[in-house]
Design a protein that fits this description.
This protein has about 300 residues and is an alpha+beta fold. It has 6 helices and 7 strands; from the N terminus they run βααββββββαααα. Strands 1, 2, 3, 4, 5, 6 and 7 form a 7-stranded mixed β-sheet that branches. It is rod-shaped.
């Protein structure tokens, strides 16, 4: 039979098993003396819990020993594990365990031999049940097999035919002291998905139009008027030089012409941005929730702890 550490057998055991008992303090149920703490859990090839690896700390000078799960009672509220009928003498007689040790049939027989002693069996039968105790969560992957009768003390054991059922008192959890009932409820889980609803493209294009403009222009012209003076016919004085050959009158003539040009000017600016509008979507669903029903008969005493 091969044994595995729980995290090696199932790396996701927390999703299946739920409560994490590694690190729980371990106490002797009869003396309430602290023994040590749970360092690991060993399971078989079927996933059934077989041993709790207990680090005894200063109790037995840091020795690690194996505690069969059938000899444990768990109080999840206090994060305590009670070793049923466990004594310091047993801890000293148990073979030491370490992470590099190969757990084979011979090693397990040395462990079982310590727990099979008559004093151990008596202490388990007389040990008081632990209030508010709960099991190593009996989910299908890790539940112990169905209860069977204890093996007679004088039974013979063979490595080829041995099964854990032969030591039911060591490996089967006391279902009377180890029970867990999970209550479930439904909850609304909301999520938001970002969905594309469209595109907005902002660009430019050029439009052409015909512009008409009127420009007033001025231009000059020369007017030549010929008139008869009032003294026409009067004799010119002999001393006057009346005749001048080549005499001319000169005038410059101007006119305006239109100078029309095209120039670009900034007409307006366009800013493109996004604004977020917020809205609330209301939804309603029928949710179910399990409530605990306690039906007692006779004079049973029920201690409800929240």
């Amino acid at each position: 039979m091969v044994l595995y550490k729980l995290e090696d057998f199932d790396p996701n055991y927390r999703d299946t098993f739920g409560d994490e008992i590694k690190g729980y303090d371990v106490y002797a149920d009869r003396t309430d003396e602290k023994i040590g703490s749970v360092k690991n859990i060993l399971v078989d090839e079927s996933g059934h819990f077989r041993y709790l690896v207990v680090d005894t700390g200063f109790w037995i000078f840091g020795k690690q020993v194996l505690l069969p799960v059938g000899r444990s009672s768990i109080d999840h509220n206090a994060r305590h594990i009670y070793a049923l009928g466990f004594t310091k003498e047993q801890a000293e007689n148990l073979p030491e365990f370490n992470d590099s040790l190969k757990v084979d049939y011979d090693y397990e027989e040395r462990v079982r031999g310590v727990y099979r002693t008559p004093s151990t069996e008596t202490s388990v039968q007389t040990s008081a049940p632990i209030g508010a105790s709960a099991p190593l969560d009996p989910t299908p992957a890790y539940a112990a097999p169905g209860a069977t009768s204890n093996q007679p003390r004088n039974a013979s054991y063979n490595r080829d035919t041995y099964t854990y059922q032969q030591d039911s008192s060591l490996y089967e959890m006391n279902q009377q002291d180890h029970q867990t009932l999970k209550l479930y409820e439904e909850r609304l889980i909301t999520n938001k998905n970002r969905v594309k609803t469209g595109d907005v493209t902002v660009g430019k294009h050029v439009e052409t139009e015909t512009a008409r403009v009127s420009v007033p222009l001025e231009k000059e012209r020369v007017i030549v008027e010929r008139t008869t003076p009032e003294d026409a016919g009067t004799v010119v004085s002999p001393s006057a030089n009346a005749f001048h050959e080549g005499e001319v009158a000169r005038m410059e003539v101007y006119e305006e012409t239109a100078d029309i040009q095209k120039k670009a000017f900034v007409r307006e600016e366009v800013n493109v941005r996004k604004e977020v509008e917020r809205d609330t979507v209301n939804a309603s669903e029928q949710l179910r929730r399990e409530e605990l029903d306690v039906d007692t008969k006779g004079q049973s005493v029920v201690d409800k702890k929240v």
